[in-house]
């Protein structure tokens, strides 16, 4: 009897490992191995004709910490993430609540909100050039009606990053709305009926019932928004190329610039590892701390 049970357990274990094997192979090829190779590359110096690559330990990391451009890029990315994440989530939630309500042309409203999401990043960036172009752009045309001066939105350090932030919010709010809309449709109608019987206002029902039930979705969206905030590069290529004076340069663009424009792969690898470590810490906090407090009891 015991041998039969052990055989069955072994068979189930083999079956489980067989199911996991395709995912493990893909993760090993496209995630684990590149991460290990990047870490290894970050520990060596730059390879040139006169000076071959050699082991330098953490020197590449200390070089980055001593580089003023590195800290400027970090500050830009913190500002970029600190504005785009909460604003896009708040707008997405508001759009989802409205699109889920009983309004006329509800299908058209949902489509209109989601349309920016399906546009390719390059196409969206080129579209916004029609808004930001000095003198000819939509924004300057509207400002001219009120006698406002022409503004070079993408050519001034004070406005370049904010122009990128606006494009990102416009692009991502509709994408996050889809997740909120799907979550709203899973909330039982019984809760709304019970709230109506108790005489609760719409705001009370939203604040005390809907928002707590949407917390797992909000956490999922926040993690995705955080990842998106460190991987933006398409818009920068079209709109600012990180300028002027590095005012709109973000982390991924800086990594690309070091690796493929300056051919400094070790420092690019070191910065990549730092980004992976930060994202790993955030993921750990999510799984072991925040996730346990997001479910409505």
Q: Could you explain how this protein is built, in words?
A:
The protein is an all-alpha fold and 297 residues long. It is 73% helix and 0% strand. It has one domain (63-293): Orthogonal Bundle (MetI-like fold). It has helices at residues 2-41, 59-65, 68-100, 106-118, 121-132, 138-145, 160-184, 189-197, 202-213, 215-229, 234-239, 251-261, 265-290. Helix 2 crosses helix 13 (265-290) and helix 3 packs antiparallel against helix 10. The model has no long low-confidence stretch (mean pLDDT 87).
Descriptive labels:
297 residues; MetI-like fold; 73% helix; single chain; mainly alpha
- Report the total helices: 13
Q: Helix coverage percent of residues? A: over 70%
CATH superfamily: MetI-like
Number of strands: 0
Please give the domain count.
1
User: Can you give the mean pLDDT?
Assistant: 87
Helix/strand order: HHHHHHHHHHHHH
What integer value in Å does the Rg equal? Answer: 25 Å
Instruction: Please give the CATH architecture.
Output: Orthogonal Bundle
Distance between the termini: 44 Å
Uncertain spans: none
Strand content: under 5%
Class by alpha and beta content:
mainly alpha
Q: For this structure, what is the CATH class?
A: Mainly Alpha
* Overall form: flat
The main pleated sheet reads as: none
User: Under CATH, the topology is which?
Assistant: MetI-like fold
């Amino acid at each position: 009897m015991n041998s039969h049970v052990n055989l069955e357990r072994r068979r189930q274990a083999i079956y489980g490992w067989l199911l996991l094997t395709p995912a493990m192979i893909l993760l090993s090829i496209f995630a684990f191995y590149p991460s290990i190779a990047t870490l290894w590359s970050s520990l060596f110096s730059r390879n040139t004709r006169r000076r071959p690559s050699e082991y330098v330990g953490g020197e590449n990391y200390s070089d980055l910490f001593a580089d003023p451009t590195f800290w400027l890029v970090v500050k830009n990315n913190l500002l970029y993430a600190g504005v785009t994440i909460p604003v896009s989530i708040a707008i997405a939630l508001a759009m989802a609540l409205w699109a889920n309500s009983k309004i006329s042309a509800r299908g058209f409203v949902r489509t209109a909100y989601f349309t920016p999401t399906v546009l390719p990043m390059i196409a969206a960036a080129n579209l916004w050039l029609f808004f930001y172009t000095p003198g000819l752009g939509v924004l300057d045309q509207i400002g001219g009606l009120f006698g406002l001066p022409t503004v070079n939105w993408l050519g001034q350090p004070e406005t370049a990053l904010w122009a990128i932030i606006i494009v990102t919010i416009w692009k991502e709010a509709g994408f996050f709305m889809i997740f909120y809309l799907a979550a709203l449709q899973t909330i039982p109608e019984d809760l709304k009926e019970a709230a109506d019987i108790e005489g609760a206002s719409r705001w009370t029902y939203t604040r005390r019932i809907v928002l707590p039930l949407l917390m797992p979705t909000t956490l999922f969206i926040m993690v995705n928004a955080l990842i998106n905030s460190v991987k933006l590069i398409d818009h920068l290529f079209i709109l600012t190329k990180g300028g002027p004076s590095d005012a709109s340069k973000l982390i991924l663009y800086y990594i690309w610039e070091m690796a493929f424009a300056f051919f400094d792969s070790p420092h690019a690898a070191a910065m990549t590892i730092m980004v992976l470590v930060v994202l790993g810490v955030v993921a750990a906090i999510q799984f072991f701390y925040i996730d346990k407090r997001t479910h409505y009891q």
